[in-house]
Each structure stands twice: as C-alpha cells, then as structure tokens.
Amino acid sequence: MSPSAGSVETWLIAIKKLQHAANETRDRWICNQPGERVPLKDAVGRIALTDCISPECTPQFDTSAMDGFAVSSLATKDASLTHPVQFRVIGTITPGSGCLDDSGIAAYGMEPCAEIMTGGRFPDRAGPLGQLDACVRVEDITIAIYGNSNSMEQWRSIIVTKPVQPNAHRRIAGNDIQCSEVLVKAGQRISSSHIMPLSSLGFQDTEVMRKLRVGIWSTGNEFVTKSASIADVNGPFLQAASTEYGAEADFLGYLSDDVQSLSQSFHSHALSDKWDVLITSGAVSIGKFDFIRAALDGCGAKVIFHGLNIRPGHPVLFALINLGNSSLFPIFDN
User: Where is each MoaB/Mog domain found (predicted)?
Assistant: First the structure.
C-alpha cells in the first residue's frame, strides 16, 4: 500500500503517465462539454471548442504600411539629386476613403501621385491609377506648393530624388491572414495574441469549452474537529492555483482520517458528475494516519504513481477511479 523505494517515479516518467491518463479520460470529459460562447475579452485563457476560421483575407485589399505618397515606382527608376522626378498630388487616400478623382490627369503635365495614410487603400492595379504601386515616405521627398493660398488653383507636388522600389511599404492583400486560415485550433488555449487577428476579422465572441471543474479537500482530524489552532494553508492555495490556471475550483471541506469515510467520499463525488478532477491534501505518505492510498484501494482506484523523486512533494499520488463502462475519473493526492 505504501510507495516502496523502487516504485518512486522520476518527474519525467510521471508526466508521461499523466499524459497517457489524460488521453484515457479525454473522451469522457469532451462528451460532457456543452461549451459556451463568450465575448473575446473573456476568452483569454479558455480552451477553444471549435476551430476559429478566417472568413476572408486581411488586409482585404492592398494598403499602405505608413504615411507617405503613392507613386509609380517605374517613374522613379532614374531619380537622383541631379535628375529629380516631380509628381503632382491629385488627392489624399485615408483608411476607408473612396476612389480618387482621376479626371484631368493628362493635362497636369507631370506624373500623378496621391497622399496616402497608413491603412489607406492603394488604387487597383487594373484601374486608371494602377501605376501608383508603391509608397514613398514623407521624409524621403520634398513638398512644393504652387498657387495663391487664397486661390482654388493652389496645388501641391512632391520631388523624389532616389528610386522607389516596387511595392515599397505596400501591404499586399491577404499578406497577414489568408481566407479559411485556422486562427485558433480546437483544443488550443486562447491567448491575448489571438484577440487582435480575431477582432480584425469581425469576431465578437467565440465558442469555448466549459472550465475544468476541480473539487478540493484538505484532510486531517485536526481540521474536522477544530481541536487544534492549526491553519489550513494547502486548501486555499490549491483552490487559488486551480483558479489561476483557468479551472472552476470548489473547496469541498475537510475529510477525517478514516479509511471508509475517505473511500466513500472519493467514490460518491467521482460519480456525482459535478467535478472533473478531485484533489486532496495530506494523508498520502506512509505514516500512521496516512489513509489516502488505502481509501483509494478500497474504492477500486487504479494508482498510476505514488511517490515522486522530488523535494518537496515526494509522497504525491495520482490515481484513476473506475466509474464503470470503461470510464475513469482522475484524483490527485499530495
């Protein structure tokens, strides 16, 4: 009943056994997963119930990666300090703005360009302004203003003195997220880094698994009878730690040092379907009042390991309670 020196597991072997046990109990847990839909702000730390799939690509069209001017890169291929290229500004492109007015371009006598803000949409390549294929930064050009400030004839031009690379500072449609791309896989923990791409695609909420339900006991007659002024520190800690890792943790109270009482409590709570995991604290070593192992044996539990080669935590125990129909219920004792 007690862990012998030869049965003490290493940490790595214990982890492998826990992973194997998780695979054994996964189907039962998933079957009891109705799931729930929560706002994105509440989804961080939760487990995705289904894949979150992008309904479209982002950006949906080519946009500018910075403030500057949309120009024809081809027109700047020979630009230099001695041979500058001048462009006439025909309008301003902001995020969400409509198409530019391209009428009268032929009469300007110089290459057209458009002031473009970060996130502004480049003219379609097949359109009349499709030659505006790149963005030149404000700090790389000189702006000239012509005409009287009180006159409607005032207009601006920019002067470029070095070549601009094709597609410079241009975010290509679909470059961030592809249509039908899986943003979060089912079973994956949602992190804050997922919120931005989900929000960019219009997700307001997402479907997640319900939280793991953990039931926690502290053991010892001293807590049951309150005959000694001893504070229970493990119970509050285990409840807080379980909550910190995303579980719904219930403190179930105190268990007395009695094999039959312990065994009945373990079995009845495992059958109740109110919790997914049970955790106890205390009575798991090999002392006179350490009855956890005997109680688990009494309710037909399968002990996966009892004793780890670590300090502190050497007596820790993990077992699976057989609920029938090949269903196993996990219980930790430390």
Answer: 215-334
Q: Which residue has the tokens 């929000």?
A: 199
Q: For 172, how many CA atoms within 13 A lie in the half-sphere containing its CB?
A: 5
Dihedral Cα 64, 65, 66, 72, nearest 10 deg: -40
In the chain, the domains with their CATH numbers are 11-33+211-333 (3.40.980.10), 63-171 (2.170.190.11)
Q: What does DSSP say about strands 63-64 and 302-306: parallel, antiparallel, or unpaired?
A: unpaired
Backbone φ and ψ of 304, nearest 5°: -85, -45
Please return the burial class of 41, using the count of CB atoms within 10 Å of its CB with bins 0-12, 13-18 and 19+: exposed
Residue 1, both tokens: 């009943």
CA 9 to chain centre: 33
Residues in contact with 129: Cβ distance below 8 Å, sequence separation at least 6, in sequence order:
100, 102, 112, 114, 123
Per residue in 278-331, pLDDT tens? Answer: 999 988 888 887 889 999 998 889 999 998 888 877 889 999 998 876 567 887
Stretch (H or E) spanning 234? helix 234-244
CB under 8 Å to 109, separation ≥6 — which residues?
none
pLDDT of residue 5: 40
Instruction: Using a cut of 0.85, tell me whether the model's pTM lies above it.
Output: no
pLDDT tens, position by position, 73-117? 999 999 999 999 999 999 999 998 877 877 666 656 789 999 999
Q: How many CA atoms lie within 13 A of 222 on its CB side?
A: 9
